[in-house]
Amino acid sequence: MTGSHGADLPATTPDVATALTEAAHDVGLRVVAHAITAAEVGIALDAGADGLAHVWTDLAPGDPASRRLAERVRAQGVFVVTTLAYFEAITAGHVETADRARPGSSAGAAGALRDLHRAGVPLLAGTDATPFAPAHGAGLHRELELLTEAGLSAEEALAAATGLPARHFGLDDRGRIAPGLRADLVLVEGDPTRDITATGAIVDVWRRGVRQTRR
Fold it and tell me: Do 189 and 198 touch, CB atoms closer than 8 A?
């Protein structure tokens, strides 16, 4: 099929998607579907996927079809990994490959994100970083900025990068600060609950309770 990247890309058929999802669920695994178009999202939802990697990019902002799709995602209890930074990077032409988004895909992604947020869909921050863009690590800080630009509060963006991923992927030992949990902590300069860009002003990092030394 031809996706929003403007290239002919292989896509899993509905029957195969359903069979894979059922087999994964039979052994207790979560299923996250890679979908960047409304049609692919529909296949994933029909198959019973637990989450979506990417928002759709092929519906114009304000399109009623996008709002209806967001409501369906919420009704089925599906979470979405956002990856706005990825679409921003490839739309800007930062990725010099054939896998390039057509003009407008970044705007389409932001529009889909707004519809998902208004519908109350759980949103998980992610970048889908490739060897080309967005930059690993730094890309997530940009992702958080884009989430707030699309309508999330700073606190909602922080939750999208911490507690919500832990909850939806069953990682009960992290995502919150509480006795007995993994002490993976970041100390920043400023208040990221008010200004999300403060996440980039990192002062110290602890991993499993051990302060990391800078190299």
Answer: yes
Mean pLDDT of the chain: 90
Residue 88 and residue 114 in contact, taking contact as beta carbons nearer than 8 Å: no
- Residue tagged 């999802």 (tokens): 21
Q: Which residues pair with 51 in a beta bridge?
A: 32, 79
Residue 11: per-residue pLDDT: 78
Question: Measured between alpha carbons, how far is 61 from 67 in angstroms, rounded to an integer?
Answer: 9
Q: Is the pLDDT of residue 103 over 80?
A: no
Q: What phi-psi label fits residue 98: left (phi over 0), alpha (psi between -120 and 50 degrees) or beta?
A: alpha
Q: What average pLDDT does range 157-175 have in this prediction? A: 97
Instruction: Check whether 72 has a pLDDT greater than 50.
Output: yes
The three-state DSSP-derived secondary structure of 39-91 is: HHHHHHHHHCCCEEECCCCCCCCCCHHHHHHHHHHHHCCCEEECCHHHHHHHH
Name the residue with tokens 């832990």. Answer: 166
Question: 188, 199, 191, 97: which is closest to 146 by C-alpha?
Answer: 199
What is the reported pLDDT for 215? Answer: 66
Burial string for 105-137 (b: 16+ CB within 10 Å, else e) reads bbebbbbbbbbbbebebbbbbbbbbeeebbeee
Residue 146, helix vs strand vs coil: helix
Give the residue carrying structure tokens 């995502």.
Answer: 175
